[in-house]
Amino acid sequence: MCCCTLCWNEPFSQTEQVIRSLSSTVNSSGDTVDKAVAAFIDKYGVTERTRRFLEAEKRHYINGEFVAGAEMMPVLEPCTGAQLAAVPSGTSAEVDAAVAAANHAFRHGEWSSWTPAQRERVLMKLANLVEENVQTLAEIESLDAGKAIAGCREVDIGGSIDLLRYMAGWATKVDGATRQVSVAGQHFAYTLKEPVGVIGAIVPWNWPFNMAVWKLAAPLAAGCTVVLKPAQLTPLSMLFFAELCEEAGLPPGVINIVTGRGSSMGNDLTRHPGIDKISFTGSTEVGVSVGKAAMENVSHVTLELGGKSPMIVFEDADIERVVEATQQSIFFNTGQVCSAGSRLYVQRPVYEATIKAIVDRATVMRVGPTLDEQTDMGPAISAGQKASVLEYIAIGREEGARIVCGGEDPGGEGYFLQPTVFADCDNSMRIVQEEIFGPVLVVIPFDDEEEALQLANDSIYGLAASVFTRDISRAHRLVKKIEAGTVWVNTHDMIDANTPFGGVKQSGIGKDLGPEQLDHFLETKAVWIAL
Ligand code: NDP
Fold it and tell me: How large is the average pLDDT for residues 510-518?
C-alpha cells in the first residue's frame, strides 16, 4: 500500500513562488496559509480562483454582505495538520443579525415577492455557477476536509449540482388541493402549500459542501430563507459558495452563512426564537440536544443522524459486487460516511472467500495526498478523529476480533489511517455496535436468513442497509423486514436527488432529498369560503 504522506515536502523552485504568493498574503486579521500547506498546494496546483479565495480574508455572509468576525479561529489542512485558513468564530450577535436578515427577506424583502419561476431560475443559475467552478470547489473542499479530489469532484460537488437542478424544478410544482366538505351550507374548501419560514441549518464535517446543499436546495425551492452553520472544521466551501450566491443574484438575506463553534453559536441558532425550523445533520448525541432545544420554541425539526449500517451477504451473492460496495462506502471518504456499510454479515460457506476478496482490494488502495488525482483515500478529518479511530481499533483487538488488514498507525504528517478489516466479530462487541466513523470494517459470520435479519436489526441505528443475493424472493423478504430508511440490493450507498434519504430508530427523523424533503419545508393552510 502506498501511503506517501510526506512526498509533497520536496524543495523545488515553483513551490517557493507559491509559498511567497500564499503565505506572504497576510490578511487584515493577520492569518496566513502555513508554508507546509502552501508547498502541498503548489506541488499539485490549484486554480487561480482557489488561490485568490485562500488568500482573501474569510468573513461571515449576512444579509448579502461579507461581514468581518470579531474573533477568528484556525482551519487546518488534514494532510499536513497545518493551518489552511482562519475564519470568524461567530457570536450570538452575528446569529441574531443573520436570523434578522433571513426573517426580513422571508416576510418583507424582495424574496417574499418572487414567483416560483424566479426561484427556479435563480437555483438553476446557482447550479450552473457551481458547475463552472467545480474544480475550484473540489480543491477547496479537498484541502479543507481531507477528501481525495477525484471522488470529491464527482460525488460531493457533482451530486450537489444535480440536487440544485432537481430542487429548482420543484419550485414551480408545489400544489395544494381542493377538498370536498360535508358540513351544512355551501362551502368551497382548498389547501395552500406555504413555505415554513426561516430555516436554521447545521451540517457536519464529513460532506461539508454536499450536506449544506442538501440543507439549502429544498427550502429555497419552497420559498424559505436559510441561516446555515458549517462545521467548525470545514467552513471554507460554504464561504466560497456565498460568492456564487452573490453572482447568481440571490436577494440579500435569503442565504446567510455564519461560521463558528457548534457548542456556542450552533446552540444559539438552535434556540433562536426567530427560527421556524431546524434542519440538522450530525451525530445522534448532538441531534438529541438540538431536537430538544427546537421543541422549546415548537420549531419544526428534521434530524439526519448517525448510523452503523449492515451489509448482508448470502452464499449465492456476486462477491465482486460486495467488494465494489465496500470500496464505495466504508473505504470511501476514509470511512467518514454516515451510511457506510460498516457491519458486514457473511453466510458461512462464503465467509473466508469474501473476506479475502475485500482485503485483496483494500491493500492496493492508494492512501495519500488528497490533491493527487490518483489517490483513493485521504486522511481522517482531524487529529481527534484519527485518535478516536485508532482507539476503536485497540478496543477491537482487546475484544478478541481478528485483524486481517490494516490496523496500524501509518505515522508521518497529517491524519492518515489504513483501511482496516476485523474478522470474527460478534454483535456484543463495541466495534460492532458503535459508529467508528473511519475506514474500519467489522465482519460477522451467520448461518441462515433468520439469524442474519436478527443480527442486522440488533442496533440502535437504522439509517441504511444492503442485501447481496441472487434470490429475488429473499431480497424482497428482507427489504420489508430490515429496520432502515434505505435498503439497497446488490449495491450500497447509492444516492440520487429523487430518492429520499434519512434514518429510522436513532438515525433520525424526516427525509432529505426527493419530494419528501420538499414537504418538510411546506406548511399546509386550510382555506374555507362560504358561498
Ligand atoms: P456533530 O454532531 O458533532 O456536529 C454536527 C454539527 O452540529 C456541526 O456543525 C457542529 O458544530 C454542530 N453542533 C455541535 N454541537 C452543537 C450544539 N450544541 N448545538 C447546535 N449545533 C451543534 O457531528 P460531526 O460533525 O462529528 O459529524 C459526524 C456525524 O454526522 C456522524 O455521526 C455521522 O453519522 C453524521 N452524519 C449523518 C448523516 C445523515 O444523513 N444521516 C450524513 C452525514 C453525517 P461544530 O463542528 O462547530 O462542533
Answer: 98
φ and ψ of 480, to 5 deg: -70, -35
Distance from C-alpha of 205 to C-alpha of 415, rounded to nearest angstrom = 15
C-beta of residue 229 within 8 angstroms of C-beta of residue 269: yes
Q: What are phi and psi of 8, to 5 degrees?
A: -90, 0
Say how many Å lie between the CA of residue 236 and the centre of ligand 1: 16
Grouping H, G, I as helix, E, B as strand and the rest as coil, residue 438 is coil
Residue 188 pairs in a beta bridge with 529
β-sheet bridge partners, residue 345: 312, 444
Is the C-beta atom of 407 inside 6 A of ligand 1? Answer: no
Could you tell me whether strands 486-489 and 504-505 are parallel, antiparallel, or unpaired per DSSP bridges?
unpaired
Say how far residue 525 (Cα) sits from the centre of its chain. 32
Q: What's the pLDDT tens digit per position in 337-389?
A: 999 999 999 999 999 999 999 999 999 999 999 999 999 999 999 999 999 99
- Residue 39's nearest CA partner among 5, 15, 65 is 15
The three cell numbers of residue 207 are: 460532506
- Is 266:288 a contact under the CB 8 Å cutoff? no
255 with 216: CB under 8 angstroms? yes
- The residue whose grid cell reads 479543507 is 144
| 511-525 mean pLDDT | 98
Å from CA of 306 to ligand 1 middle: 9
Task: Please give the Cα distance from 252 to 242 (Å, whole number).
Answer: 11
End-to-end CA distance of the chain: 77
Supply the residue whose CA is at minimum distance from atom 14 of ligand 1: 262
Ligand 1 and 262: CB distance under 6 A: yes
Strands 187-195 and 522-530 come out as antiparallel
Active-site positions read: 304, 338
Mean pLDDT of the chain: 94
Q: What count of other Cβ atoms lies within 10 Å of the Cβ of residue 333?
A: 24
Contacts of 407 by beta carbon, 8 Å cutoff, 6+ apart: 393, 397, 418, 420, 422
| Pocket residue to mutate for ligand 1, from 234, 279, 281, most atoms within 8 A of Cβ | 281
Q: 252-299, pLDDT tens digit by residue?
A: 999 999 999 999 999 999 999 999 999 999 999 999 999 999 999 999
Computed on alpha carbons and rounded to an integer, the radius of gyration of the chain in Å comes to 24
Q: Are 69 and 259 in contact (CB under 8 A)?
A: yes
In 153-231, beta strands by DSSP E: 178-179, 187-195, 198-202, 225-229
The answer to whether the CB of 494 falls within 8 A of the CB of 464 is no
Query: Distance from the CA of 232 to the center of ligand 1, in angstroms?
Result: 10
Q: Is pTM, for the whole model, over 0.85?
A: yes
